[in-house]
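Thought: the user asked what NAD-binding protein looks like in 3D. I have the sequence; next I should run the structure tool and report back without guessing.
Action: structure_tool
Action Input:
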Amino acid sequence: MKLRRLFTLGVDAADRSGIPVHNLLDVISIPTTTRATPWSLMARRFGYALALIIVIAVLTYLDRDGYSEPLTFIDALYYSAVTLSTTGYGDITPVTQSARVFNIFIMTPARVAFLMLLVGTTLSVLTEDSRKTLQIQQWRNTVRNHTIVIGYGTKGRSAVDALVAGGASPSSIVVIDPDPGVLAIAEKRGLVTVHGNGTKSDVLRIAAVTKARSVIVAPSSDDTAVLITLSVRELAPSTMIVVSVRESENQHLLMQSGADSVIVSSETAGRLLGIATVTPPVVEMMEDLLSPDEGFAVAERQIADDEVGANPRHLADIVLGVVRSGELYRIDSPEAETVEPGDRLLYVRMKTDDIWSKLEKATRDDD
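Observation:
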């Protein structure tokens, strides 16, 4: 389907960046460690309070002769409960110096601690929204150089898998999707989530697109991909945009919309299907190269000082290309005959490289 008509559509320029943070509680979700439910929190605090009553009762019973009447343990427990709760009926009172010193230096601090336990439980339950508000505000003030994934379907999840396997922190990835169920899955992985439509400028601003290092556009339809790309490029002129489309005829439209790289999923899958019928092992190797967390992987690195001027074919690594001034030169191109200062190499990295690097580092530390 041709998508030229989309260039005539306006992009929503609404700006929700000025909305108070407490209005974004249902939009942004910042992953945190698992928190106890209010009921379990209250039960735990109640247990602490009960334990404090028992401890004070035991201490009171040890000095049971210092009160207005001889105390049984039940009397001591009763005195501990009514005193810590500040009820104070006055039927049992300390009369000896030791009992009064105990009430001054032990009972009074214990009473304060008892009240803090009860009040703290209530405040903890009632201020959950305030905690989330402060958390979102802190995230918006500190987020930088993150990656935004728009669309958390099969392609979006695979992109996140590759990012995490490549060393990216889950907290540095923001997922935008209109499906709350999908966002719940992303949040369980430790990803920051934003509920909304990625074509909307206000949603992109909430995800801090202007501060993002890159944006991965992986919606279910090509027309949506074009609208998202237009919106992102308008807000973030220098951010890298990588887009996935189904049909190759829409590739040039995405490039005109501002995409830096376009992946045609249907053609890529078709090529692999064709290769699989002739040479299945090639497809297995391609899958291996595209899986950074296992076997082989295509990686990029800065050249070493002793590699300047060398032919990349003669280096220890299996070099596939040279990146110079942001442009890729294949290994068989004339520009890649020698390595120049500032070049970066695309090479085949083996998983064992990481193991040997760690062993070498450990050996140096031992020395």
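Thought: the tool returned a structure. Summarizing for the user.
Final Answer: Structure for NAD-binding protein predicted. The longest helix spans residues 97-126. The CA atoms of residues 275 and 281 lie 9 Å apart.
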